[in-house]
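Intended use. Records like the one below are meant for learning the mapping from a protein sequence to its folded structure. Do not use them to infer anything beyond what is encoded.
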Amino acid sequence: MQSTNLKLIVYINLTILLTEEQGRRHDGQCVLDETTAGLNTVLHLAAGQGKIGLVRKLCDGDDTAAAAVAALLPKETTKSETALHPAARAGRRDMVSLLIRLAQMHGSGAPGLLVTKNSAGDTALHVAARHGRVAVVKVLMVAAPALSCGVNNFGMSPLYLAVVGRSIGAVKAIVQWKHASASGPKRQNALHAAVLQSVGEPLTY
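Structure written out for the chain above:
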C-alpha cells in the first residue's frame, strides 16, 4: 500500500511538471519516458527545477527503477541538451552530483554524459561557467577536469566564459587544472577578455 501511494505521488508530480512546461492540462497518466514538444523528458524538467526529491523517489525501490531513470540521461532535447545541461544552468549542484552518480551506477557511465555537447557546442561545464554557477563548476571539475580543455562552436572555453561572466569563483575552480584551455573567439583568450573588461572595452565575437 505504501509503495502504491508513493508511486501515485510520483506520477502526480510528473504530471504537474509536464503541465507546467506545456502550458496546458496534461490528460491521462504520465509515463516516465514521455516528452514535451521540445523533447524535454521529465528528468530534464526535474533537473532544471532542482526537484531532487522527486528524482530520488523515481529511483527508489530497486535497481530496475534506478536503471529506468538512468536510461533518460542520454536523451537529448531539440537543442541537443541532456538533463545535465539545465541542472548546470540553474546551478543545481546536488542535482548535478546525483545525475553523475546515476550515470556511474546505473547508466552507461559518467564520461559520456559529461562530454555531451548541446547544439551550441557547450558541455555542462561551459553552461555552468557562462552563468557563474560556481558550485556546479567545482563538482564538474572534480568529476572531469579535462572538460576545461574543450571549446564550443564559437571557440570559447569554459575559462573564457567564466572570465566574460566575471565569475571569479568559477575562474579559480577551472585554473586549478593546469591544462585548462583559455581559448576564446577570433584568436582572443581569457587574458584578452579580462584586460578588455578591466578597461571597459566591449568584447567582439
